[in-house]
Structures are given as structure tokens and as C-alpha cells.
Amino acid sequence: MSVRNDLREARKQLAYVPRALQLVWGAAPALTAAWGALLVVDGLLPVGFVYLTRLLVDNLVTTIGAGVSWDTIRPAVLVAAVMAAILVARELVQLAVAWIRTAQSELIGDEIRRLVHARAYAADLAFYESPDYHDRLHRASTDASRRPLALLENGGSLLKDGVTLVGMAALVIPYGAWVPLVLVLSTLPALYVVILFNRRLHGWWEDATAERRWAGYYDWVLTYSEFAAEIRQFDLGGYFKDTYQQVRKKLRGERLRLLRDESLARLASGLLGLVVTGVVMAWMVWRAFLGQVTLGDLVLFYQAFDRGQLLMRSLLGNVGQIYANSLFLENLFEFLDLQPHVVDALSPREAPAAVREGVTFRDVTFRYPGTERVALEHFDLSIPAGQVAAIVGPNGAGKSTVIKLLCRFYDPGAGRIEIDGLDIRDLRVLDLRRLSTVLFQSPVPYHATVADNIGFGDLLARPDRAQIEEAARGFAHGTQLSVGEWQRIALARAFLRRADILVLDEPTSFMDSWAEAEWLDRFRRLAKGRTAIIVTHRFTLAMRADVVHVMQRGRIVESGSPSELLSHRGPFAQSWSAQMQADTATRD
Ligand code: ATP
After folding, report:
1. Pocket test for ligand 1, best of 365, 395, 400 (most atoms within 8 A of CB)
2. What is the pTM of this model?
3. CA distance 356 to 113
4. Which residues of the chain have pLDDT under 50?
5. Is residue 379 a contact partner of residue 394, using CB atoms and an 8 Å limit?
6. Residue 368 CB: number of other CB atoms within 10 A?
7. Local structure of 349: helix, strand or coil
8. End-to-end alpha-carbon separation of the chain, Å?
9. Is the beta carbon of 401 within 6 A of some atom in ligand 1?
10. Which class for 6: exposed (0-12), middle (13-18), buried (19 or more C-beta within 10 A)?
11. Using CA positions, which residue lies closest to atom 18 of ligand 1?
């Protein structure tokens, strides 16, 4: 890799810095302005101090031998008093900076989380189902999101050190305009080392994202309650502990190798800087011997040059850090720039107030992103308003996919999906989702009260206690909830939303047969006046539907009322009799 390439890359990365600063500014403008002003003051104070040292030394040199009286020592005492005031002022300024810095970082940290949350929520479901998205989210939310803050910190130090450095340079210029130039040039190799190794570190960090994520996962398996029972029963603790250690060992080794190379390169560039300092100082001492400069000059020059070196080093460190942080910023901004594909139409149509005609899939073909296999192929389905339709079929037939497309988690590759004749892509996504209520295959137990868990079904309607209890009736009892009980809570949540389209994916899969029988008795009443689509493997449930659609390999292969289907000798009837025989065999 050539130096030119490295620098071009560096320039590209640094382009993220203004955006990060904008973000910081937007989150806390007043604090940031106050902080910047204080840093400039903090940067100037040491320059004043060094300048006064020369006055003090020269005053002392004149005073010594002139006898001790207030008149002779007054100038030196005055200078010393101002220097003391500068030291006190520095303490105060630094205290204020630290205070502002904490307030600012809290604000900015929360603002970044807000942005990440908004983007994660707006992302298509497809993103969540791809490992690439997980890697991006992991990068953006674990490490990258604290980078703007770190950048702020580095930017602040850079500003302060920069101000001091310019001040110090101004102090040494009278001794030779080349002095500050040499100071800067001597540190360029160190700058290059910093940039090079930050890039290598970041490259490694990105390449290792998946491994870091795996390490996080093993750690999670070993320490979280959901896994506790299984890993004990199957004695998986040792396996996960070892796998975690293996991944960590690899990551640790790579990181330490990088660090070793970096330390050697830093040592070489640091030695070069030292040689230059030695030569410049020798020159200055030589001039003092010749009487070309005073003792005060020598002290000032030494202090300014010595501090200049330190400042340059810290400045470079900060530039390096800014660069390193800007590399990570790319991950944050890349995540924040993710564009969802499922978005509102440019001029959306009004959603119907009530569903009058029904739901229609017309010649829909769909593949999941990144896969070749068609999940739905030339799929046609019509469910008139008010009908209870069951979709049955073997695993992987595409039943849940039908639901995901109806909710518009994905858009079909070809064909269209209509509600009352309107293409669902022409409706606002939120309006469309409010037209239906869905019980997903694996409903989510939110960490909240049962009432809240049900109330989440319709936050907009601000359900009161009575409505929640009404929705809960028959669904949930008890406090320690089993999976089946959670399913009933999720059903109550789905029913709380008085939407016209009711979609249930395996609503009774975790219920015992008593609970199911009880639920089936009430189901028709609950679904009354609504269009219901039920995906199920249970014949008991399918038999309650008006129409059953049998799916195989992404298509409907048979449709009709349960009794019609039973009288045909098609897949439904065959599956039914197979289940009946199995039941009878078990009973015998
Ligand atoms: P089950 O009865 O097991 O729930 P299903 O009929 O609901 O099955 P779908 O979940 O719709 O089946 O899946 C249809 C096909 O699409 C399957 O081959 C499945 O592997 C594939 N599939 C489902 N979800 C995804 C996804 N997110 N990415 C890629 N392929 C997927």
C-alpha cells in the first residue's frame, strides 16, 4: 500500500468528521459553544505563563546583585503574582470544562442512541433476517455510537493544544522562523505511523465483526436465563465456554500482534524526534554562550520547545484518534443511512375505513432477499370480507410468508396484494398495518405487566382497564406464565386491536387441548364481522373455518369448505385421515 493511497483513504475517512461534529452541535449547541470558548482560554493560558517566565527570569537576573528592596523586587513579584493568577485560572477553567464535558456527553450519547433506535425501527424486517445487518447493527450500536463523543474529546484537546502550540510557535519565531517548522517536520513520521496503524486496527476490527459477535453470543448463552435450563441438562456449558475462549484467543492474538508492530514503528519515529530536539537545543545553548541570547531567552526557548514537542505529540495522538474515530464513524453513519425499501408511496391513497371487499393476492411471486428459491410462485388467493379462511400445508410451504407480505414486511417481486381493490403499496405503511391485527408465530413476551402486554395491542386507542380485561377474559390466568399462557396473552393483545383483518399464525400451537377446545368455542364469536386469516397445522382449528386453502411449495393446491375438502380425496382429506388414524392408533 503506497503512502499516497494511505493519505487518500485518510482524506475520505476524515470527511465523516464534519458530520459527526454537526451531530454533536445539534445535540448540545449552547454547551458546545461554551466548551469551545473555554478550551481556547485554556489553550492560551500556558502561552502567557511561558512568556511571563522570561520576564521573571530576566527581572531576577537584573535584581540579583542590586540589593533587596521593595522597589527592586516589585517587578518580579508582580510578574510572579500574575503567573500565580494564571495557574488558578487554569484550574477553574479545567473544572468548568470537565463539568460541561459530562453534561454534553450525556446529551450527545442519548441523541445518538435515539438516532440508532429510530433507524433500527425504520429498517425493513429483511434487514433483521440477514447476518450482514446484524453485523452492521452490532458495529453501530456497540462501538461506533460512542465514537462521536470520543471525537469530541479529541477535537477539544486538538483545539486547546493547537491554540497553545500556535502561541508557543509565536514565542520561538523571533529566534528563527525555521524553529517551529523543524518542530512540525520532525513529527511527520510519527503522524504517518499513527494513521497507518489506526487503519490496520480498524481493518482488523471490521474483519473480526462476526467473530466478536459470536463471542458475545457465547457469553450470552452462558449467562442468560433463557439458556440456563437447556445448557445444564445437555451439559453444554463446557462446549460454549471453550468455544468462547477459542474465539477470544484468536482475537486477542491478532490484536496483540498489531500492537507489537505499532510499538516498534512508534519507537523508531519517536527516536527521530528526540535527535532533532537535541540538535536544536544544542544550537540555542551555543548562542547563549556567544551572548546572543539572555538567560530568560534560553529558559523561554527551552520551555516553549519542550512543551512544543509534547504538544506536537499529544496533537498527533489526537489527530490519530480523530482518524481512528472517523473510521468507526463510517460504521455509524453507514447504519444511520440505511434506507428501508418498504416505504410509503409518494402520493399514498386513503386506507378504507372498513374492509368491505376483502383481501386478494394476484399472481404474486416472491423470493426472500439473497435467496434463489421462490417462497411464493404465481400465488393467487382471495379472501372476501367477513370470511374466516384457514391456510394449511406442510412446513416451508410459504404460509407465514403470505402473512409477512400482507403486513408489508416485504414487497413481492411480481404481482400485487390488494385490500378492497387497493394495492397495499399505495397505502401508508402505518395505515395498512392498522387495518389488521396479527398474532405472530412466536409472539413476544414484553417485560411488562400482563395488562401492559395486552395494552400494547393498541397503544393509539389508549385502552382502559375494562377493555384490557375484556380482551384478556379467557386468555390469561395466573402470574407465573407458561409458554401457552404467553400465547393466550398474545392472543388477547391481538384481539384488543379492533382491526377489520385478523391474522393468526398458529394461534393454538402451544395450548393444551382443553384450552384449545375452549378457545375454539369462543373463536367464531371473537372473529365475528372480521376477515380472519388463520395459518394452522391443527385440523381442529381448520375445521372451524369457512374456507380452507391448502398450500404446497408456494402455491394454493386446493381450496374449499372443510366438508367439501373432506369429500374430495385431495391432500387435505389425506392428511386428515392420516391424523385420524394416528389418533386412533394412539388410543388403541
Ligand atoms: P411452517 O409451517 O414451518 O411455519 P411456512 O409454510 O410458514 O412453514 P414459511 O415460513 O412461509 O413457511 O417459509 C417458506 C419458505 O421460505 C421456506 O422454504 C423457508 O425456508 C423460506 N424462508 C422463510 N423465511 C425466510 C427468510 N427470512 N429468509 C430466507 N428464506 C426464508
Report:
1. 400
2. 0.71
3. 42
4. 1, 477-479
5. no
6. 15
7. strand
8. 77
9. yes
10. middle
11. 396
